[in-house]
Design brief:
10 helices; 2 domains; Phosphorylase Kinase, domain 1; alpha+beta; two-stranded antiparallel ribbon; Transferase(Phosphotransferase), domain 1; about 10% strand
């Protein structure tokens, strides 16, 4: 009798899950477009027909697009699902996430689907559609990003050729463009969503780049409302307060992680933002000790050697490094808001002349 009950319970649970996912997929995205002076990125030149937005794909279409999930199409095994290259009938290149519900918590999948149905902004990697008809696996279909993520791009394209040569495809203007793009996405989450949302996953591997190096933030499955001192509120049923407390569920945490990426763009060392990075006396604090107002030329001790730096560019790079240092303040309450960070990245001269509103760091001490 107990076996019959267990089977019935599993059947009911699977049926409820399918219905819940179906209802989520049918919701209309809220009109939360950016309505402020913060500049929006130009449209990507890559094909993105509106007819594909939030489409529902059949399982056969998913199989055809990924060549039956061929090993040659596999990008990586990820914590929230395996990623595969693919191509739709129209020739649109895509990335398909295959989510095995027997191995991966369904809440993570549902949170990401819920996010895309409630929040819309050009700085998030576009979700073209989904497939929910398979009982054991669910699929999300994203727009293909030619330059992949920042971390992968760096180690596949920059490191093999890094021998003191100038790297035209990652010149300073491109790095600053990437920094601004990340800041725009975070600024939207922190200041334009009510309640404020926290990304919680900002590092070099979650920053996707299209063919023109426009930023699209990925790894959106852990976005949640900013934690309060109390139990906190919920953005929706699928956006729960972080189980790890306030350490990674605050806007200040996102700002800190962004500071890590900013420091990587300045130094050319793609390591600070990675999850396994640990602060040591010889690493980040020592690096930041070269970012001081009294002697801006000290920045040359840490800046990426592949960059050709004149006097004007030196001041701009110093300003960006100074913003990174502010973001990395050990005291969360002293870190600047993303709106101030974005302002500084669009106008570095206000940091150089000392009029930046986010300048509250004083003398930063790392223990």
């Amino acid at each position: 009798m107990s076996r019959i009950y267990d089977n019935w319970e599993r059947l009911v649970g699977a049926t409820l899950l399918r219905e819940e996912l179906r209802l989520i997929a049918q919701r209309t995205p809220s009109d939360l477009s950016l309505a402020s002076s913060i500049p929006s990125p130009p449209p990507s030149p890559s094909p993105s027909p509106s007819s594909l937005a939030r489409s529902s794909f059949t399982y056969d279409e998913i199989l055809q697009a990924t060549d039956n999930f061929s090993s040659s199409n596999l990008i990586m095994y990820a914590r929230t699902g395996d990623l595969f290259w693919g191509a739709l009938d129209a020739g649109i290149r895509v990335v398909v996430k295959k989510v095995d519900l027997s191995l991966i918590n369904r809440i993570s999948f549902m949170q990401e689907l819920e996010f895309y149905n409630k929040v819309s902004h050009p700085r998030f990697v576009p979700l073209l559609g989904h497939c929910l008809e398979n009982d054991n696996h669910k699929f999300l279909v994203y727009k293909y990003m030619p330059h992949m993520d920042l971390h992968s791009f760096w180690f596949r394209n920059v490191v093999p050729f890094y021998r003191g040569k100038n790297l035209d495809w990652l010149k300073w203007e491109t790095r600053l463009k990437i920094a601004r793009g990340i800041a725009e996405g975070l600024c939207y989450l922190h200041h334009k969503c009510d309640p404020p949302l926290v990304h919680r996953n900002i590092d070099a591997s979650s920053i996707l780049l299209d063919d023109d190096f426009e930023v699209r933030l990925g790894r959106l499955h852990e976005v949640c409302t900013q934690a309060k001192e109390t139990n906190g509120s919920r953005f929706s049923r699928g956006f729960e307060r972080s189980i790890s407390g306030t350490s990674d569920a605050t806007c200040a945490y996102d700002v800190y992680c962004f500071g890590m990426v900013l420091l990587e763009l300045v130094t050319g060392r793609m390591k600070y933002s990675l999850p396994n990075y640990h602060i040591t006396k010889d690493s980040m604090p020592n690096t930041l000790s070269n970012v001081i107002s009294q002697d801006k030329k000290l920045i040359l001790n840490i800046v990426d050697g592949s960059l050709t730096i004149g006097e004007v560019l030196l001041k701009e790079i110093w300003a960006v490094a100074f913003v990174a240092k502010a973001c990395l303040d050990p005291k969360p309450s002293r870190r600047p808001q993303m709106s101030h960070v974005l302002e500084a990245l669009h106008n570095p001269s206000i940091v150089v002349n000392g009029s930046w509103k986010g300048k509250r760091i004083g003398l930063i001490q790392f223990s």
